[in-house]
């Protein structure tokens, strides 16, 4: 008999150049394994979104970063849901042919996957996405017209949408060399930081599941394209994975709505493990969980441009050399095994 | 007045005890009453300078600035 699920949080911070998960949904295999090991994996769109590719699994819970942080801090709970109606916000800056491609993705997800889609709302002015790089080398970004995004999101909710997919027009070449490095598997995703800001802003304002897909002109084929980035070059848009992910995203339940819903809700105090890259532990969800005593499993092989590790932050961590080893540790926790048990380690203590 | 977004970088020397509350406090003080750190992360650790021996923290954030 399988033990009960061990709710587990998987974090791969967006825009920090992780070797696994820093590209186009390339942490998805690791997420699938961790979902199987834990029986319940809560993770964010950066892990699961692979543009035209996606994987739907009831053990995977798709939660945008702002909401994930609030969840980890115990400020909201998650209510798994069979179906969301996914409304679509389109940036007014998207050119007509590209806009049509996105509308047709939404129509196809309705016709071919049976998803509930709509309404579709266009912002009343261009969002003005700007890209930037932090001193540390991570990507950040901003919006010229955040209020236009919020107004469009409000219209989606008023029109019956219970989750929101946003498509903003992004600059086609963020900086000379950066895009090429990313496509060749050696750079930081220059779009990711701005994407996170967009979805954080909307989640914070409306308290509904949100995720973002950038609208970009097609790139010329590149024979040196890294397989981890290739999912973004299969189609005309990055939207299918977002619509599929949101279609089964859990509801965000604020404290005032939690009464009487005990058994159907996922809460931070149920978390049994957190899995994160060893050098990217400086985010809110990881810190909140670790300070609550949730075992923190750090994957040492998933390096990134940051070196914010457990030793520097004073956090107790359990090291795993790979996601396969991390999944084994999660399974051990789920089975009630003590992680220090010598038989579990490659080199048992003498 | 519409809301706006701005970037913020700061360095803090943490004291004893849990970090998260200290980071949030430092951000709130720096951002002020009419803003909120929408997205933030500790992005660097520097050699310790304080009596606690803990590293200095570099923090990068995007601040949502709202009209009062």
Structure description:
The complex is a heterodimer of chains A (350) and B (68). Chain A is of the alpha/beta class and 350 residues long. Chain A contains eleven helices and 14 strands. Chain A has helices at residues 28-38, 45-48, 65-72, 96-113, 146-158, 178-183, 192-206, 239-247, 284-291, 310-313, 323-334; strands at 8-10, 41-43, 60-62, 77-79, 85-90, 116-122, 129-133, 139-143, 163-169, 210-215, 251-253, 273-277, 296-299, 318-320. In chain A, strands 3-2-1-12-13-14 form a six-stranded parallel beta sheet. A four-stranded parallel beta sheet of chain A has the order 6-5-9-10, with helices on both faces. The longest helix of chain A has 18 residues, at 96-113. Chain A is globular and about 60 Å long. The two termini of chain A are 34 Å apart. Chain B has 68 residues and is α+β, with helices and mostly antiparallel strands. Chain B contains one helix and three strands; from the N terminus they run βαββ. Chain B has one helix at 19-31, and strands at residues 4-12, 35-46, 56-65. The longest helix of chain B has 13 residues, at 19-31. Chain A binds chain B through residues 13, 65-66, 132, 134-136, 138, 140-143, 145-147, 150, 196-197, 200-201, 204, 282-284, 287-288, 291, 306-309, 312-314, and chain B through 2-7, 9, 18-20, 23, 38-45, 54-55, 57-60, 62, 64.
The averaged pLDDT of chain B comes out at 89
In the sheet with the most strands of chain A, the strands line up as: 3-2-1-12-13-14
| Oligomeric state | heterodimer
Q: Identify the overall geometry of chain A.
A: globular
Helix content of chain A: 25-40%
Q: What proportion strand of chain B?
A: over 45%
* Low-pLDDT residue intervals, each spanning 5 or more residues of chain A: none
- Roughly what fraction of the amino acids of chain A lie in strands? 15-25%
Helix content of chain B: 10-25%
The rounded Rg of chain A comes to 20 Å
Q: Per the principal axes of the C-alpha atoms, what is the gross shape of chain B?
A: elongated
Number of beta strands of chain A:
14
Q: Give the helix/strand class of chain B.
A: alpha+beta
